[in-house]
Amino acid sequence: MKSTFVLLLVWITGSAFSQGFVAAIGSDDIGVILNNPATVVLETGDTLKGKLTSASLINGYLKNVALKLADGSKRKLDAAAMKTLTVKASALAKMAMMNESANSIFRTIKTDFNSIINREYIVFEQALRATKKDKPAMMQLLNPGFDHVIKVYADPNANETMKLQSGDVTITGGADKSYLFVKNGEKAVIVKKNGYRRNFDELYADCPEMITAFEGDNARFKDLAGHVFVYDQLCAK
């Protein structure tokens, strides 16, 4: 295990991990997930399955959705009623999770890439916002598949780098300059490019191998997804 860990760190420090998360869907892109199969887990614990017929995304937060159930009935739900929303991604909506350098890492540890990185579904979850009010909201999960301890959500206030477009639809999305991190279900923390060194020490303090490997200037924000992946695979308890 230790040798595998070292090998992973070597690959990451030598390769860029940019665009490692699912691209966040914007309000203008919401149409790419409509009319697709969806599953909603309610706060009551009940589960609804059907076709997503409408969804409202305001300021990066999912506000409400409508489902057409198998019996033909329709169900409208606001954010407060939902715990998770999982929508089957169409061919157009599927977004690349990792770049070629990431694939190299998966080949190195002989792990099936598709069994870990879930690119088949777009997921929204109820999570705390990083605000003084600590109010929960439905936010898009950006690291499905390697989110067992650290969940990374789209920061509604994040500035983005340039996006890769296909017509009017974002295919790979822009690289966010900040994200919302939730570790072990605790309050969300905004992780920004300029303060990532401090965040790194805080987030991975329970994994001394990572702190040692990425000391100094080696904890690069562009490798953020790789750090989360390695922690999930080799350090998460």
Structural summary, described in words:
The chain has a seven-stranded antiparallel sheet with strand order 4-3-2-1-5-6-7, with no helix packed on it. It has a three-stranded antiparallel sheet with strand order 8-11-12, covered by helices on one side. By secondary structure, it is of the alpha+beta class. The chain has six helices and twelve strands. β3 and β4 form a beta hairpin. It starts with a helix and ends with a helix.
What layout of secondary structure does this protein have?
Blueprint: H1 2-14, E1 37-42, E2 47-58, E3 61-69, E4 74-78, E5 82-88, H2 100-108, H3 113-116, E6 121-128, E7 136-140, E8 150-154, E9 165-166, E10 169-170, E11 178-183, E12 189-192, H4 196-203, H5 208-213, H6 224-235
Helix pairs in contact: 1-2, 1-6
Number of strands: 12
- Note the overall shape: elongated
Mean pLDDT: 75
Helix and strand run: HEEEEEHHEEEEEEEHHH
Strand order of the largest sheet: 4-3-2-1-5-6-7
Give the fraction of residues assigned to helices.
Answer: 10-25%
Unreliable stretches covering 5 or more consecutive residues: 13-19, 95-116, 160-174
Sheet with most strands? 7 strands, antiparallel
Number of helices: 6
Structural class: alpha+beta
- Our measurement of the CA-to-CA distance between the termini, rounded to an integer number of angstroms, reads 14 Å
Strand content: 25-35%
Radius of gyration: 18 Å
